[in-house]
Write a structure and sequence with these properties.
about 45% strand, 2 domains, about 325 residues, mainly beta, Neuraminidase, 21 strands, single chain, Immunoglobulin-like, five-stranded antiparallel beta sheet
Length: about 325
């Protein structure tokens, strides 16, 4: 007759006491918790945590609370520990508590999904918090020395925020007509000139919506956000890729896009273009994949369904680009 007492209990206010790396991607997080009782006094309170997510292991999921007075809260007398794989986001709905106590003494007296996200996102002292919202598939973030933040979206739009506290961005550039946004294709690389804004240049690397030498858009529509690939598992949808330089005038692009490299061939939308970065030698390095398919045999490699050749890397110094020196100054880094 005391089962209704479980409805008076809540658990939360998690405090991390330790975070220990146990393998390449797994960390053990240990916490205390607070149990609140809005009903009459209960005794011998024990809480047990369970997980239905394979990426969250319960190392030690039992909390001893002891007696809880009426209308009171109490910190657990011990801790609980979970093992989380940092490659996968935490889904707190996959965690649940069972709380037992007297006079009820039922192990299933209470079951709830604790609000644990804010407590369990910490990693060696770091905490996740939302800085910018209302973005569509952001792929790259670059910080300027004057405090501005540039964010590239996969569809080809580049936005700039005046600072980390800004809530409304300015559209710096709209490359949606040029960008083929499908599958792994899109605007994937962006970097600011090392001397930005003194040198007011933004470099971008994206899948170009046309074959080499063609005019975009071939598959999409002017200003389109999501582009098609009509024969993704057949002949593919031939496109290419561009490394370009954009000039900034305040928070907007001025003048025309300056194309530096545009000879990447992409038949299928897998493993398209890659990332951009300035090396310690001052050169700009751009990477690209093989543009292969994960389901179709590539005609250039008969009988091979999965292609994993070395990626292509270009080395650019201002306006000239070439294959990087051997060994590359980035090798081993």
């Amino acid at each position: 007759m005391h089962a209704s007492l479980a409805a008076n209990l809540t658990i939360g206010s998690y405090t991390q006491t330790s975070a220990t790396r146990v393998s390449g991607y797994q960390y053990d997080y240990t916490y205390t918790a607070v149990i609140t009782n809005t009903g009459p006094t209960i005794t011998a309170v024990i809480a047990t945590l369970t997980s239905s997510d394979a990426n969250i292991q319960i190392v030690d999921g039992t909390l001893t609370v002891g007696d809880l007075l009426a209308n009171s809260s109490k910190v657990s007398e011990d801790t609980f520990t979970i093992r989380q794989d940092e490659r996968y986001p935490l889904d707190s709905s996959m965690l649940s508590w069972n709380i037992s106590f007297f006079p009820d003494s039922s192990q299933s007296a209470m079951s709830l999904a604790p609000s644990m996200e804010s407590a369990l996102t910490s990693l060696n002292g770091f905490q996740d918090s939302i800085v910018f919202s209302s973005l569509t598939e952001p792929t790259v973030v670059q910080f300027a020395s004057d405090g501005r933040v540039f964010v590239a979206e996969k569809n080809g739009i580049i936005k700039v925020y005046d600072n980390l506290s800004a809530t409304t961005p300015t559209v710096f550039a709209d490359l949606r007509t040029q960008v083929h946004n499908f599958g792994n294709r899109g605007l994937l690389g962006m970097v600011l000139d090392p001397n930005f804004p003194t040198n007011p240049y933004v470099y971008v690397l994206y899948s170009y919506d046309s074959a080499i030498g063609g005019t975009a858009p071939r598959w999409g529509t002017p200003g389109g956000t999501a582009d098609p690939c009509p024969d993704v598992n057949g002949a593919g949808c031939v496109a290419s890729a561009r490394l370009s330089r954009l000039q900034a005038n305040g928070n907007v692009m001025t003048g025309a896009e300056q194309v530096l490299v545009e000879d990447w061939f992409q038949q299928y939308p897998g493993q398209s273009i890659g990332a951009l970065g300035f090396g310690p030698d001052g050169a700009l390095y751009a990477s690209g994949g093989d543009g292969a398919s994960s389901t179709v045999v590539d005609p250039a490699r008969p009988g091979i369904r999965t292609m994993i050749p070395p990626t292509k890397v270009e080395r650019c110094v201002v306006r000239t680009c070439a294959v990087p020196p051997t060994p590359s100054p980035w090798m081993g880094q």
